[in-house]
Amino acid sequence: MTEAATDILRVRNLCKSYxxxxxxxxxxxxxxxxxxxxxxxxxxGQSGSGKSxxxxxxxxxxxxxxxxxxxxxxxxxxxxxxxxDRLRNTCVGMVFQSYYLLPELDALExxxxxxxxxHGIFEWLTVRSAVRARARExxxxxxxxxxxxxxxxxxxGGEMQRVAIARALVTQPQVLxxxxxxxxxxxxxxxxxxxxxxxxxxxxxxSIVLVTHDPVVARRxxxxxxxxxxxxxxxxxxxxxxxx
Amino acid sequence: xxxxxxxxxxxxxxxIALASIISVTLxxxxxxxxxxxxxxxxxxxxxxxHGILSDLVFESHSLSGxxxxxxxxxxxxxxAGDDIVGMTPTVAVPAMLxxxxxxxxxxxxxxxIGIDEATHARVSDFGRYLxxxxxxTQLSFDLREGGYDTVDSQSEATTPTRPALEGAGWPHRRxxxxxxxxxxxxxxxxxxxxxxxxxxxxxxxGGPTRSIDRQVDAxxxxxxxxxxxxxxxxxxxxxxTTAVVKxxxxxxxxxxxxxxxxxxxxxxxxxxxxxxGLASFxxxxxxxxxxxxxxxxxxxxxxxxxxxxxxxxxxxxxxxYYESKMSEYDSNFVFVPxxxxxxxxxxxxxxxxxxxxxxxxxxxxxxxxxxxxxxxxRKVFPADLYAVATWRDKQGPLLAAVDMxxxxxxxxxxxxxxxxxxxxxxxxxxxxxxxxxxxGILKSLGAGASGIAGIFLGYxxxxxxxxxxxxxxxxxxxxxxxxxxRVGVEWLTGQRVFDPSIYxxxxxxxxVDPFTVAWIIVGAVGIAVASSVxxxxxxxxxxxxxxxxxx
Lengths: 244, 551
What we know:
heterodimer; A: 244 residues; alpha/beta; six-stranded mixed beta sheet; 8 helices; 10 strands; 27% strand; disordered C terminus; B: 551 residues; alpha+beta; six-stranded mixed β-barrel; two-stranded antiparallel ribbon; 20 helices; 13 strands; elongated
């Protein structure tokens, strides 16, 4: 039980299948996965191995068919929709391959968006300046201090991804879930993003799950979990483990 | 918070959505304008009807009326108490009005109404509708020495549309008498001359014109030159009057004044005030043309009070015109002094000296409940002898028809806004599809279904408010300036949009009722919000993962 207490994320026997017409596609067939607080884990696997699905289930974006996810000590199965929304907003930060910034908002507003979602209008008026300062600080830290009021279409891919990371961190989440964050970026820019993630993990002790199909990217993590045919591949060679 | 921000951003970046609410704007504007103008018409009509009829009308079913109006008025006052501020007795009988225009007798069917000149104006707006300023302050059945308004006193126009009234009154009467005298002398001279020249002409060889002259001569001889019953020559273009033929007066024998000679240049018959529509028409240039003028004499035939009624007739002098702008009344009513009508109809009991009247017009104090007072009076006076009605009761069907017209129009116009609602629905569905990925993003940030739905409902509310607001501004601008706009449209198209001769209003009336406007706005905004409900629900139900994958 002591181990469970330090685990920020615990996944047990997670199953998920998609139905399309008469055919059933089992994507996850009983995945077990743990993430300790402050750990940086890469999840690798071929396309269709269920990496993204696993990430969505951990990020409460989808519901599992069987098994359980325990996020920060809370079993998410059986939670009401409102509680799930709340938990996603407070505990999880997510970064995606296509950045997923809101095109109508500028960089600063995009970063503040999760907190706007969290607070009602009147509450927002009381916390606005604090949130603004925090968002500005994060963007400064990622080298975007001069582009606060640029809209996503005016930013490069790397800049957009850094805005997305800032947005994921503004809520001070307990875990950052990154889905191919370097997938749309060139090698150098991608490396910069990975540096940022490593730095966050090392300096702030942020727990990170990084999903990628690129072994080079995966090797930046403390630990690599390989998914194959909907299960964790236990035959993963120890050589791919990197010393903390 | 994000809902407001996103609503605002979507509103600023999606102009196509604004296109969908133009129909809301137009619908709201049309509704405001139509309601204002209809309310204006309705109000004008009601004020006019109310101005003509007093608050309450107390009537006898019998044409002979009831005796002793003073006793009835005391009883009414006892029954209704403090609510009554004024009462006046009247006698109304159907009658025929005859007057002569260029030798032709014109006959009109009229309602001959005997009024008490001292009190009648106090129970209704009667005074306001007269053409002489003096009569408007206090009606007198004595002919005035000129001074009739050539400008319609009830319109805001300043151009004289009634030039014919310029010389009306005594000057017109004297001129007419003088002209008749000259004409008669000329006829006489002609006759003498022709007799002297050709004594055989008397046998009828002089052709039709001459034989008419002879007839005239014969009549002239018979009436010994008394011009009292001479009827009016044409009022218009007096200069080219050529053939005023004076027929024998069939009523002369029946007149009690027979034998007493009267000088028409200095005396008048009993004064009457006919409705303006009885003897005038409006030509294409908007000028009112009169067939007879104040100062001219007319004949009225009416039934006596006995059973069976006998027709009696007498000559009267027009002293003013009555113009309520309700053509039904203006072409029907002729007012006469009550006492004269009572006497001529034999409504005065020779033994008691008590007069009878048909009805009593009652004015109530401001704010009194008409129906309540009516019901009180109905309890006191038996319904088989007396009818008590409010002015609304009297014009009930007309007022109800206008109300129904307004309701139907409102329903139709509201359907326009409902159609606009479907436009909003379609465009919102498109926006939801376009924004599917953004919806997924918001859900991944922890936005709930209600929050997502709130964005689109708020968006619909914003659009509804903007559309209704623009419609409000447009509608009010049109409603307040409708007459300027009418003039502009008439100038542009060369077509007459609003013909005052049909409506008897000089301008389009328009009354903006804040309550109606509020309802229209609420309805329009409600429709905009209601039509965004379905797209909002669809957005709320989107699956986050599928929404994120959407491209």
